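User: Teach me something about this protein's shape.
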Amino acid sequence: MSPKELVQSFYQSDALYNTKTLETYLHPEVILEWNSSKGFIKKDHDGLLQMANDLKKVMKHLSFKFIN
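Assistant: First, the predicted structure itself:
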């Protein structure tokens, strides 16, 4: 699979709403580091999956609010 096909596959998947799917795209040793407005944040594989779960809950709540 080419890099372009991999990225397209990710965007067409439900990875942002399904941690099992997201897990197939993340390398087990992934580390995400960034400077946010709250300071330096570092997430490992499990931290990214947890963040995805948290975001999924917020997005579901916001979507529900906007629909009603």
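Now, about its shape. The mean pLDDT is 86. The CA atoms of residues 10 and 25 lie 7 Å apart. If you'd like, I can walk through any region in more detail.
User: That's plenty for now, thanks!
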